[in-house]
Specification:
Rossmann fold; six-stranded mixed sheet
Length: 250
Amino acid sequence: MIMSTQTIIETHDVTKVFGMGDASVIALRGVTLRIQAGEFVAIIGPSGSGKSTLMHILGCLSRPTAGRYILDGRDVSNLENRELASTRNQKIGFVFQAYNLLSRTTALRNVMLPLVYDRRLDQHKKPEQAEALAREMLVKVGLGDRMQHQPQELSGGQQQRVAIARALINNPVILIADEPTGNLDTHAGEEIMVLLHDIHDQGATIVIVTHDPTIAAHTQRRIEVRDGLIEQVGHNEQGRSTWAGPVPAA
């Protein structure tokens, strides 16, 4: 896929400090990075490296203590909580290791959930619009025949597909996946990575946060974080899985 020259994520000397005084902990120590539209990037590092803190800032779940964060052309560094939440809902799609699905809710209703808070939809037609979009997303991830199933009726791979569909429904400018294969066996994890590649090939900008070099090797570029700093940036030659089989609904 050809990358755009549009910058989706840009940080300048981002610092994050938790606590105060002698009890303070510096999680990020001046991180500067840029991610272009259409990139497939891994942020990789060991536990305690600062990668999760960086993900929370990039995902508008947290604000930097110092420095600037520009998301899709807008400085979001100092937004108030309500505006930050609105930006998060409209601009970012999240995929989590533990899926984070509502347990007694169908796949269809789980995918519809972000649209409850989307003011861009016609308020009079919102239920119909939301359901139509959710159905479209579930078909896109290969779960057209599982829409009325609840999470406990789905495999781990299928639950992660529901989570991916939910992350895509608002047409976000970036998809952030936090250890998306961490709860899956090797085969199901490989299928999820193939799905993410397919989504990227359709134009999505994707950031995967991981500690696993095997997962990071799927991406075009890896940003390695250690001790709150970017240690190095590398490019992957292949950037795609060797899995060549069909992609069933895991």
